[in-house]
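On clarity, I found the account of how folds are encoded harder to follow than it need be. What matters is that the chain and its backbone geometry are given together, residue for residue. I therefore recommend that a typical entry be quoted early in the introduction. An entry of this sort, consisting of the sequence and the corresponding backbone structure tokens, reads as follows:
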Amino acid sequence: MNIKLHLKTSILFSLVFTIYSFAQEKKNINAKRIDTPPKIDGILDDTVWQSVESSGDFNMWQPGNEGEISKELQTEVKMVYDDKAIYFAAYLHDNEPDKVLRQFSQRDNIFVQADFFSIAINTYNDGINETRFFITSAGTIGDARADQFNEDFSYNVVFNARVSFDEKGWYAEFKIPYNALRFPEVDVQDWSINFYRRLQHRNQTHSWNFIDNKVGQRTQYNGLVKGVQNIDPPVRLTFFPFVQGLVSNFDGKTETDFSAGMDVKYGLSDSFTLDATLIPDFGQAAFDEVRLNLGPFEQTFGENRQFFTEGTELFNKGDIFFSRRVGSGPSTSISEDDLNTNEIAADNPAKVNLLNALKISGRTKGNLGIGVFNAITERTEVNITDTITGDIRKAVVEPLANYNILVLDQQFNKNSSISLINTSVIRKGSEFRDSNVSGLVWNLANKANSYRLTGRTIVSQINLPEENIGGFASELDFDRIKGKIRYGFGHDLADKTYDINDLGVNFRNNFNNFRVNASYQIFEPTGKFNRFRINVFARHERLFDPSIQTRNLVGFDSFFVTRERFAFGVRGSLNSKTQDYFEPRLEGRFVTFNSSAGGRAFVSSDFRKKFAYDISIGTRQWFNDGQKIYRVEVSPRYRFSDNLLLIWRSEYFNRPNNFGYIDDDGTDVFLGQRDIVSLENSLSASYNFDSYKAINLRFRNFWSTADYADNIFYRLNTDGTRSQIDYDISEDNPNTNFNIWNLDLSFNWRFAPGSEATLLYRNQIFNDDEQSTLNYTESLDNLFNQSIRHTLSLRIVYFLDVNNLKRSSKG
């Protein structure tokens, strides 16, 4: 009886202590209204700063909460505001200012070898959404939108910040205009805030309001802003007009192009913003990292177009929006059935032109987030030529199309949300495909932030000329998210007709999978380690229809960081025999792969040193089978000075005795045994004159071969096994030598807040042939015998605030 009472008392005490710890007293910072704003130069000698009280007494956050911050490293912050902006002054004391690292970088690249100071503002005090503003000790600025799980640096607003140094340390000064924020339309604002100071050479990060590393997310630990009231912000209307000129030379032909367009931001209210791009041109977007793709799934690439990366966090709820679908290749192509005798069709264009796009997003004072996205792409045709008469007719491969998204995201309890999202693609003309996808998404945590239930339910609808096809998918996960020992389990499912690929991306459907995992991690430096984490996991995979087991796997992963900032980790897994229903490319057919074991190990040295490196090695071995995988990746880096950094990366991949799909006739599937080898080299180099001007070099060369030299081919049997056959490859040789080269050399100049000029030289070479026996050097010689595409472009973007225009006109 006493034991039970003691146990109940202990549980009750632990619960009360947890709630008390998490709900500890929050700090306040008092914001003072001013009439004359400070000059933003990083020198805190303005009269306004002398009359404002400071807030300090920062806490240890990383590598752990334990330890005191010495008097010589104290930080103080001051905050004022007027009807145009909020202003911050930060006093970052350091008794050894000469040891403060100051590597130069460009906007948003703030995680370099430099100290930084950051401001995290939550204008709804909801414990979830923040806008973060950064400045490094070298003067580089950055901004991001953040929630409990993600920090999105593609978010860019116009603000001003500067730094200065003296013998007592360094100083930062910020001006954040109201058009960079969204907040409720109320007389007295209820904002929360936290400040962070990163001391790179000391390997410490301090926070103004205390953050318990073991419980919850840091967005839930902000202090409070007092005194911001009766603000009357100016009209939030800004323009980003651009002009771009381009000269391109390929195979002896020179082409020129000039384009102009504009992005617009308009504050519909203090909470909601409309973003629009008119006649966009993404010609200077970074190149895609194309690879040889022998698998059954499409190759996808990350989004490089700023309009589709900035401020899209609402639209990413449920993972059913993949922005690269907008303006990608046409949804149809010309087949032989579409051609008359003696006709040939031009190749489908690689992309469809985007005419315009807009997004409206914001959040009400009741924490309801609302997002609307709409984009229109133009009608796209290809030429069909009669080879006898020379007559040309046009055929539509993509009609005028409309892409739209609606999102409702209700947040509550400062740690939970429920979202509704709907995407649709409507193509003009009854002979084209339309689609609609609806999703319910939830993220629910208890008040003590010890457990979380997440999941989604998605319904897809495809409307074809002949039929309508509905599909369904779901995901449910339960996890313990507090303490050193954590665990979780989950289930995800999709039926055979689930399809979100018109405006989303899913590589496969027809699955019914289960997972379980457990982990142990530390939150305070222990012994030789600043932190480490060990995780074990298991997964059971099945088809949804028919209900057939396809694979089981168990594995572990680990991650360690020493006090000297040397990181290393190991990951391993054991896979059961696998029934692969996707490699054959025919409904109902599958390939059996034997069980296998493999793993990966990596090391990463201290990036604070001039020379540092990342090294990774991995392997996988199939049992009772000749298949193997070997992978080695090496990435050294050298910081020549605070202005010049060079990073090299090489990855070697070898997969001998692999077998996979080469062809089918609608009934039989043919497989071939091949040796796959690839080598990827890339170079990233940047010379930063300062935090506003830089020369950047990006180079990538990817080479890969698939060699069927042993002439071993198979017919796939209905039970997943394979029978060796004679197979004629004379008409469609699967041997492949794939080589691609990209080089970008650019000069970027941020000549005014929000305004930038970019001069870019780019060359591209590509070759894909059947000479799989060539080695890398011979393939490279072959590559340089191909025509090189040279492109030179200049793009200038200028920031215009309508309020500045008004003041100019009055002057």
User: Anything to note?
Assistant: The longest helix spans residues 2-22.
